[in-house]
Amino acid sequence: xxxxxxxxxxxxxxxxxxxxxxxxxxxxxxxxxxxxxxxxxxxxxxxxxxxxxxxxxxxxxxxxxxxxxxxxxxxxxxxxxxxxxxxxxxxxxxxxxxxxxxxxxxxxxxxxxxxxxxxxxxxxxxxxxxxxxxxxxxxxxxxxxxxxxxxxxxxxxxxxxxxxxxxxxxxxxxxxxxxxxxxxxxxxxxxxxxxxxxxxxxxxxxxxxxx
Length: 211
Hints:
This protein is mainly alpha-helical. The protein is built from eleven helices and no strands. 58% of the residues lie in helices and 0% in strands. The model has no long low-confidence stretch (mean pLDDT 94).
């Protein structure tokens, strides 16, 4: 089976198991999505969703957030990984949105990546989920799945992103990155993985997808 054929089979399975993937981070608009995605770096979505209600009760827009002390933001998000740097980034980017974008979240990848604490993955999530611009955010989970499923070499997340974009049609990217995350959690985890029980990793009839 070629890599392209394997990708097509995986695509069918992902659409079968998670046909309508929802964004796992609770948010009410583009700004709160940006903050939630920023917080999700080295932190579980479940933890972020426990933290953000308290944060957004204090400030759910750039103007109110910029008025908060960094220490106040830190106190609320302290249970998230990298809380000190994230607190500073949230405060800083909120002020930049006010000063440079009239309080709106920018709509280009380069502008998003220029904001404090916003890397390529975070910017890509905002582009595809908020603005429906085809992008393929690659986090550590997607990176390992692409390697396990032999869609990429695993050399870097940048290489993985390029490989996945080449293998799957652009109109699938937005849903696909969420489907991979959900599937990985449910059927193809990093630890305790049982290939014989995984709909993607198990053999298909007489021929393995990974032969």
